[in-house]
Amino acid sequence: MAKVYDSIVIGGGILGCATAYEMAKLGSKVLLVDKGYIGSGSTGRCIGGIRQQFSTPATIRLAMESVSIFEQMEGIEWYPSGYLFLAQSEQEKIKYLEVMKIQQEMGLEVEFIEKKDVLSLVPMLNGDRVIGGTYCKRDGQANPFLVLKFYVDGIKKLGGKILTYSEAIKICNEGNFFTTTLRDINSHKTAEFKSSIVVNAGGPWLNEVNSLIKGNQQLPVISECHEALITEPTFPLFDPMLVSYSPSCYFQQLRGTGQIIGCYTPEQPIKGIDHNSTYNFASEFSSRVLKLIPGLADLRVLRSWTGWYEMTPDGNPIMGETNIKGYWVIGGASGHGFMFGPALGKCLAELICTGKACISVKDFLLTRNFEEKEKFS
Amino acid sequence: METDVLVIGGGPAGLSAAITARELGIQQVLVVDENPLPGGQLIKQTHKFFGSRHHFCGVRGIDIAVLLLSRLKQGLQPTQCEARDNGIEILLNASAVGIYDYSRSGDLSHNGKIVSIATESELIQVHCKRIIVSTGAQENMLNFSNNDLPGIYGAGAVQTLVNVYGVPPGKKVLMVGSGNIGLIVSYQLMQAGIQVVGIIEALNKIGGYLVHAAKVRRLGIPIYISHTIKEAIGEKYVEAAVIVELNAQWNEISGTEQKIECDVICLACGLSPSTELLHQAGCKMVYTPEMGGYVAWHNERLQTSIDSIYVAGDSSGIEEAVTAILEGRIAGASCVYDILGSRAGRVTDSPLQAETIIQQSIDELHQFRSGPFGEKTVKGKKKMTNLLS
């Protein structure tokens, strides 16, 4: 006999967890499943930065909503450390100021600060080429694993069920019901679950899950490999996430542990879901960071790893119901899943359960025009 | 930097692998070791080995290290990095910190690996065709109150202090664990004039060889079986330990606590293979308690699930120096077979010789493990094979 739930959420990353939690809060009996452990995909590999400095009203609004949710969560190591986009040329400054205008119109507390203020925020910064930066002190950081734990605990408390190491291998759509077959990764035993709602939050495996449902179109999401690196802990040195375009990299110091953590975007996208890390990244990232903060030279690298950005053509997330009634998707956050997650999950849950989200999400629906690109990817 | 075979860890397994690979005709072999001296644990093992005459029976560990090193090169000076004219290079005070593929760095045709090695001052990139990971093992820690007090050592550290540097760790030592390491180190401490106040063992029997146990008993050291350590006592350093008896279910029997005065608590409660690099490299890992925990899956030729990566010695499963040397030979010869055997039309008998050495050493390993103390390893290796098949 198949067990019956109101909704089944596939994927235990930030998007799946937030959606399942918010749906449970709205009274839905949810089952959250993941083929690995909770956070075994992109979320567990992200560096924990949370910003609101985006370039379109829709993304800025979404990120602001997310931050207001992060601020309310207990025990997630949320810290408003800020994001500082370094301006290292007049052209960069002009571009930042243009976008800042949109951000300020949306009510975001963001300012352009001069070189001396940049250096007082990050005293160790090599200021040779820095002319200033846009700074939002209400951007911040949180621990991705603790955020997931917050959601997992919440889902359980609300009576939801979580199954890990359970892979969805078949989804049948019969009338008003979906029958999802899950296979236990270890025992290979299968079990069937019925629900009227299926949410695909498969992250890098979004299209893999999508292909289980017949009659549905391919989703406009492609996974790309991005590497990250973390150092040993050190004394508190600086607060904000530093974003630089020359050399291209972004990194921050984790408030909880004192470790420096960061990434850069590969010049040529590396498509796929590769786990391997490279020598090039570890050495290249280190040398880029040292150009900006030479004083970190003695810090030892603990490890580097590869995570995945689920890219959409316009760099913005996708969410909403597909052309199959009851089958919803959430994903394609293009590297911003962790920071958008709480708001995006909440909005999707509201759409599913009440028909209306607390903020406008029309720019994230599958039916949108994908041509308007996010400038701060 | 480029090399044909990179050996990570210059203990008995690594040195034996390097010698074998070089002797069979590999042009370049690089050995890296994080210590200031090569030889691994051998350089602190002042006791004589057992086994057949062919396998260093009656030879002290420190002398085996000398033998191996002299075969590498006579009069080896352990300098930071010295090019050897015999084709073997040793890089000391250097840690291999990552194994990477070529493919993601753009060169898809190369099936070798890139290894990053951190020296005291820089990060070196080594390109190699084959890697032998012979990184040894790390000591297990025990959970008990105050287990971070100064004066609590692993047996390896005590052996290094006493036998390599001639520094006494303290005056009165409580040894935790009666395996061969616990027994031998106790004996060596007594030889060095340091009192061993007792050896405790959680099992209901002595773990190590009877001959070692008899030696320490003759010196009057009490061995408390079915006992564990409950607490270390001391303000700034260890002043005493509280031990307690265990019942058949391994639960503490209350009321049996005794306080033993000591200034050193030496932990000799087993080893775990050092497999972090193998894990990072992406080798399939299997958990086998018989081999000390997680090991990289490997076949009889010691090849892991990644073709270009081999294991040898304790990092392939906890055993001891003689089996490590034999495994080193197999891994070294297997690399030769891979590298030279694949070159079509090459006029050489190296691959043939390598194959002979591999088969001989596999046979010798089987013989060596056929005793009661080899049972566990045989069971572990069998279990490992079954886990992935």
What is the approximate shape of chain A? globular
CATH fold annotation of the largest domain in chain A:
FAD/NAD(P)-binding domain
The CATH architecture of the largest domain in chain A is 3-Layer(bba) Sandwich
Give the overall average pLDDT of chain B: 88
Label the CATH architecture of the largest domain in chain B.
Answer: 3-Layer(bba) Sandwich
Largest sheet of chain B, in brief, is: 8 strands, mixed
C-alpha-based Rg of chain B, rounded? 22 Å
What low-confidence regions of chain A span 5 or more consecutive residues with pLDDT below 50?
A: none
How many H/I helical runs of chain B?
9
CATH class of the largest domain in chain A: Alpha Beta
Shape of chain B: globular
What fraction of residues of chain A sit in β-strands?
25-35%
Using the CA coordinates, give the radius of gyration of chain A: 21 Å
Q: What is the number of independent domains of chain B?
A: 2
Present the secondary structure layout.
The complex is a heterodimer of chains A (377) and B (389).
Chain A: E1 3-4, E2 7-10, H1 14-25, E3 30-33, E4 49-50, H2 57-72, E5 83-87, H3 90-105, E6 111-114, H4 115-121, E7 132-136, E8 140-141, H5 144-157, E9 161-163, E10 166-174, E11 177-184, E12 190-195, E13 197-200, H6 206-210, E14 222-233, E15 241-245, E16 248-253, E17 259-263, H7 279-292, E18 301-311, E19 318-321, E20 327-331, H8 337-354
Chain B: E1 2-8, H1 12-23, E2 29-32, H2 61-72, E3 81-82, E4 88-91, E5 95-101, E6 113-118, E7 123-133, E8 137-139, E9 152-154, H3 155-164, E10 172-176, H4 180-191, E11 195-201, H5 210-218, E12 223-225, E13 227-233, E14 240-245, E15 258-261, E16 264-267, E17 271-273, H6 276-281, E18 285-288, E19 293-296, E20 309-311, H7 321-341, H8 350-368, H9 375-388
Parallel strand pairs in B: 1-2, 1-7, 2-4, 7-20, 9-16, 10-11, 10-16, 11-12
Antiparallel strand pairs in B: 3-4, 5-6, 6-7, 8-17, 13-14, 14-15, 18-19
